[in-house]
Amino acid sequence: MAAQHSQGIQTLLEAEKEAAKLVQQARQYRAQRVKDARTEASKEIEEYKRAKDEEFKAFEASHAGVTQQAKEAVDKETEEKLKAIDEEYASHKEAVVKKLLDRVVLVKPELHRNLRKAGLE
């Protein structure tokens, strides 16, 4: 009976070792599948990124002319406005300087209106 009991224990130990091997293989298989999935996902991400970059470059190229034209139009309008401001400045400069000098140089001494009302004239 002891031999049978010993043989039964030996069979159980072998079965346990076999089960441990199967579990280890399953873990390795799972780890490999996860690694493969990550690699595949990384490739898909790179492919998607490349496609979107190309799409953006195409969009940018198709709208580059519009942007350049708008910039040129704004620059032209700005130059025209600056030219008009310079012309206004040049045409009114003398009159403004004369008015300023007249106000500063030609002073008529007179009482302030509040003092006149108080009767201090």
Automatic annotation (TrEMBL):
Family annotation (Pfam families): V-ATPase_G
InterPro entries: V-ATPase_G (IPR005124)
Coiled coil (residue ranges): 12-58
One of the record's GO cellular component terms: vacuolar proton-transporting V-type ATPase, V1 domain
Keyword Calcium carried by entry: no
A Gene Ontology molecular function term of the record: proton-transporting ATPase activity, rotational mechanism
Keywords: Coiled coil, Hydrogen ion transport, Ion transport, Transport
Domain of life: Eukaryota
Keyword Ion transport applies: yes
Subunit structure: V-ATPase is a heteromultimeric enzyme made up of two complexes: the ATP-hydrolytic V1 complex and the proton translocation V0 complex.
Reported function: Subunit of the V1 complex of vacuolar(H+)-ATPase (V-ATPase), a multisubunit enzyme composed of a peripheral complex (V1) that hydrolyzes ATP and a membrane integral complex (V0) that translocates protons. V-ATPase is responsible for acidifying and maintaining the pH of intracellular compartments and in some cell types, is targeted to the plasma membrane, where it is responsible for acidifying the extracellular environment.
UniProt similarity note: Belongs to the V-ATPase G subunit family.
Protein name (database record): V-type proton ATPase subunit G
Organism encoding this protein: Hericium alpestre
